[in-house]
Amino acid sequence: MKIDFDTPLERTLSSLTLLFAGILAGFLKAGWIGNRRFPPDPALLAYVPLIVGCCIFFAVLRWYTDNYYLADVEKKRLLYHFRFLFYRTVSEKLAFSQIDSVVVSAVPKLSMYSNTHMYQLQVIDQQGRRHELGDPWKGQMLDLLNGQAKMLASSFGCRFFPGTAGHTYVIVRKGKAELDITASPLPLGTGVNREVPKEMIVFAVIIGVAVFGSMMLELSGFSIALVLVTAMMMISCWVSLT
Fold this sequence. Notes:
The protein is an alpha+beta fold. It contains 5 helices and 10 strands. The protein folds into 2 domains: 2-65 and 196-241, no CATH class; 69-185, no CATH class. Helix 1 (8-32) packs antiparallel against helix 2 (48-63) and helix 4 (198-220) runs antiparallel to helix 5 (224-241). The model is unreliable at 190-196 and 218-223 (pLDDT under 50).
């Protein structure tokens, strides 16, 4: 059974592809059509090959990235499949006998502008540790997550705790071999998170690399490969952090 939710790496590559596609549309419009305040500027079209190259580059990276969990019912183990370009690994996360329960738990989503609940499929091992299977999802996905979690619990032969709006699960150990898992309201608080998300840092670094590369291309005649190779190095750093 395959559990395939987006990971931070996959989401970042998809976002970067869309970002450069949007930048491409903006440059084409500014170069060919302009707007009421600014006439068309054909000089901007010189940057189109660079932007197209970046867009294709991140699209190819996303195409060759595939990360997911796999429930091996025959050998009774939970596996993690990681693929990035030509690098691929399959590692064992847990044996079914080590799994206590599958839960769908609310997690706080704190942004610079608002606070809300999101929901995440988690596996609880017999030590009470949480293992997150993919990114949190918005409340509209709660029924889908509950259905997925119920099927997983059936495959694992363990307990299932469905997600409910605005509730997380509190894990308390009772003795050496038993966990008490109870639903509890998850308050969001009144503040907002001022921490910059890692994805935004990655965006800023890669955009900075692209701008620097275009300047070098303009001033020194360096090939576009310089920009793409540098961006690949940045993506490799991101892979090592996730």
